[in-house]
């Protein structure tokens, strides 16, 4: 292929109250506010050298405008444009918008209906990994992954692996060996994107990397002390899949965030994907506690890149099962 996708780099989504979001993301979770206006707020983790990894836009209701991948060079954007046009996909360009720190961006829709962005350039920002006086809340370091509910996981996996160059690290199979969920990566960790069986497309969560497991515990204490105990949805715990420590929380608009630490290296070309049986009890969490019903039922709608309206959702091709094990 004539392009090199490096990693998941940002998510653009709606919130209804920027001040409430600031209190949650900056004061409770420890994001750095790079810039903001009355209409948007750009956030980054302590480790990140770029303008933002999370762009929150003020709107009347929640919704996800795009998930964005960084690519190696400008020529790869053109190659991706040709590729997606050849597939008959929606394609449009956005000129550089340095008011929010982003360069020229290619916008497309993948076969599941997920709005994707690809970019090369983002304005730099101070890397604060050793500014320990700024560490608070969860001490969020960087964006790690996204997880999307899609109606046909097998089709999504085939497209991303065969056409975009992603690799599978782990997957869950049903009794008849159908793929129920899968974790795919470009950077050498467990995943940049995961796909799980469900009504979609919808964004299940955005995952952010923490420096250590105790940061999850500390975040629980901070959230409880600030009145956000009810926003803790699941965890803390350890996943079977990925082996990572996790904490799932909901922001004031219900968007799901995962705080995540401790997965493993996947860079070797002879790395074999790890298969999990859907009936394996460790698929819930390695320690055995189960996910709440909200886990299966609730996710955030994607927005059409042209109209801004919610992308039409479809029922899943496989039987729905409570996804207690998703990372």
From TrEMBL:
Keywords: Aromatic hydrocarbons catabolism, Dioxygenase, Iron, Metal-binding, Oxidoreductase. InterPro entries: DHPA_dOase_Mn/Fe, Glyas_Bleomycin-R_OHBP_Dase, Glyas_Fos-R_dOase_dom, GlyoxalaseI/FosfomycinResist, VOC_core, Xdiol_ring_cleave_dOase_1/2. It comes from the Bacteria. Residues 306-327 are annotated as: Disordered. The keyword Iron applies. Its cofactor is Fe(2+). GO terms for molecular function: dioxygenase activity; ferrous iron binding. Residues 7-121, 142-262 form the VOC domain. Belongs to the extradiol ring-cleavage dioxygenase family. This is 3,4-dihydroxyphenylacetate 2,3-dioxygenase. It comes from Fictibacillus arsenicus.
């Amino acid at each position: 292929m004539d392009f090199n996708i490096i990693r998941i780099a940002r998510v653009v989504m709606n919130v209804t109250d920027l001040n409430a979001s600031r209190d949650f993301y900056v004061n409770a979770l420890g994001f750095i506010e790079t810039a903001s206006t009355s209409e948007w707020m750009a956030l980054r983790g302590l480790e990140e050298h770029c303008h933002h990894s999370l762009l929150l836009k003020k709107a009347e209701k929640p919704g996800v405008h795009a998930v964005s991948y960084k690519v190696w060079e400008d020529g790869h954007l053109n190659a991706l444009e040709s590729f997606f046009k050849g597939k008959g996909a929606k394609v449009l360009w956005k000129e550089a918008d340095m008011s929010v720190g982003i360069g020229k961006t290619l916008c497309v829709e993948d076969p599941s209906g997920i709005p994707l962005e690809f970019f090369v350039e983002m304005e730099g920002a101070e890397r604060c990994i050793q500014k320990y006086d700024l560490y608070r809340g969860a001490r969020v370091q960087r964006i790690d992954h996204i997880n999307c509910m899609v109606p046909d996981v097998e089709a999504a996996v085939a497209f991303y692996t065969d056409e975009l160059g992603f690799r599978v690290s782990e997957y869950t199979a049903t009794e008849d060996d159908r793929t129920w969920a899968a974790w795919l990566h470009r950077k050498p960790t467990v995943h940049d994107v995961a796909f799980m069986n469900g009504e979609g497309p919808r964004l299940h969560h955005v995952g952010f990397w923490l420096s250590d497991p105790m940061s999850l515990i500390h975040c629980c204490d901070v959230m409880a002390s600030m009145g956000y105990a009810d926003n803790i949805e699941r965890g803390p715990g350890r996943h079977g899949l990925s082996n990572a420590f996790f904490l799932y929380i909901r922001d004031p608009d219900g968007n799901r965030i995962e705080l995540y630490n401790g997965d493993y290296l996947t860079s070797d070309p002879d790395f074999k994907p790890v298969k999990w049986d859907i009936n394996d009890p460790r698929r819930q969490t390695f320690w055995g506690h189960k996910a709440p019903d909200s886990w299966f039922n609730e996710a955030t709608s994607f927005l059409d890149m042209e109209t801004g309206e919610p992308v039409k959702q479809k029922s899943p091709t496989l039987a729905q099962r409570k996804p207690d094990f998703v990372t």
